[in-house]
Amino acid sequence: MSRKVIQTDAAPAAVGPYSQAIEVDGWLWISGQIPLDPASGELIEGDIERSTRQVLKNLVAIIEAAGGSVRDVVRVTIYLTDLGQFSIVNAIYAEVFDTEPPARACVEVSALPKGADVEMDAVVRLGR
To answer: Which residues are tagged catalytic?
Structure first.
């Protein structure tokens, strides 16, 4: 088994004892990403649209750092603090995953780290 930590400055540093992502035998497991600005480490303030775009930008940066692309993503989980925002998140998500979208789940949660309103994690198969 090969195991490699993936880390990039193009995505926020981990805010706890975890890695941005771990690659194992061509599979990339990306930790939950919240709307943090990679440069400042601060939460992006504003509406769900800005938050969602930042989360997706962070996910893409990690995927690309591992040598993959969004077409390699096989599973995404979306966590929302307000499922009433689902249609906005879904529309922005569809801009990134516009062809052959991955499998996905979306759940409402009571709270997210740092008071974020959206978080996403992903599983990626590199080199498909």
So the answer is: 106
Helix (H) or strand (E) holding 62: helix 48-65
How distant is the alpha carbon of residue 20 from its chain centre? 10
Place of tokens 């400042």: 40
Q: Count of CB atoms within 10 A of residue 120's CB?
A: 23
pLDDT at position 127: 84
3-125 homologous superfamily: RutC-like (3.30.1330.40)
Angstrom distance (rounded) from CA 34 to CA 122: 12
Percent of the chain with pLDDT over 70: 99
Indicate the pairing of strand 118-125 with strand 27-33.
antiparallel
